[in-house]
Amino acid sequence: RSFAAVIRQLPSEMLVDVLIFYLVLRALDTVEDDMTYFATNEEKVKLLLSFHKTALVDPEWTMMGCGEGDERRLLEEFPKCHSVYAALPEASRRVISDITLRMATGMAEFVDKDLGQGTTDVDQYNRYCHFVAGLVGEGLSRLFSVSGLEQPSLAGELHLSDQMGLFLQKTNIIRDYLEDYVDGRAFWPQSVWKKYSPSGDLGYFANPKTEEASIAGLNCLDELVTDALELAPDCLAYLSNLRCAEVFRFCAIPQVMAIATLEKCYHNEDVFTGVVKIRKGMSCQLINDTTDIVGVHGIFNRFASCIIKKANTLRKKGFKDPSYDRTIKACQTILELTQTEASKGALASLVNSTMVVASCAAAS
Ligand code: MG
Question: In this predicted model, what pLDDT tens digit does every residue of 110-135 receive, in sequence order?
């Protein structure tokens, strides 16, 4: 849903390719997420692994009754999606089919894993995020390259495109703690959260009975936010490789939303009781400011400073956060990388407002 607006503003030569890429993966994810449709895990694995040869090859392929709402409808009316897919250039079809197979293979690897208590460790957490989000970054980069809107070399920036996906996925996983825990399919890595949960249950943070329990939850949350913030330098490096303004906005808008969400989640106990969301007004402001690298660096700079301020205020109040040094270091790195462009942006907005004041004065 959140991708609809950014897809719509892409140049016409690649809008449909990206739209179909999104819908195909949305369909695959609906299969992955349905916990009741399949009688056995083997059946689900079989369907996932054959998806690129069935849904993407057979123009009549459909699946009835899997998922809910619009997602169910997408699978039920999949031939409509297939007919548009079939008309795409061969190079785009090859990218979509390749990523679909590799994502499905990754999803299949996790079908048998009990995620009631999250992933086992940070490696497994990263691996899951690579399959469901990092590969999207790779696929999009390849689509940008084959369209000619971006340089061929972008398709080869596998590490940077992977980290772009991980930054978004980890932000969602952090924010969706409660929802995922209740669903019995959680992703917070045990090697992190077990350090903070004496009960050995991930739900320990959801209704803290004592002061200690709520502090433990916040310590855990701050560590995971820091882990995500450490991806920001690679995301900024990826964005600096883009040439096309619309592709830049397409890639950058979700990234600025993610850092805004991380800043809001940092040390926020609401993560454990409900859904933390950035306000609509702030989203609009961020979208408007995400026009070029100057705007994006300004935004990353601002949120990194906010997190440093929060961390220091908490420290002054006597709060002991085991991740403090790591958090400050991650934010300092972001500040260093963005300082130059951010100050250009600040200067430009100062000049702008000075001009407004000057023209108002001239008019009066
Ligand atoms: Mg899923």
Answer: 999 999 999 999 999 999 999 999 99
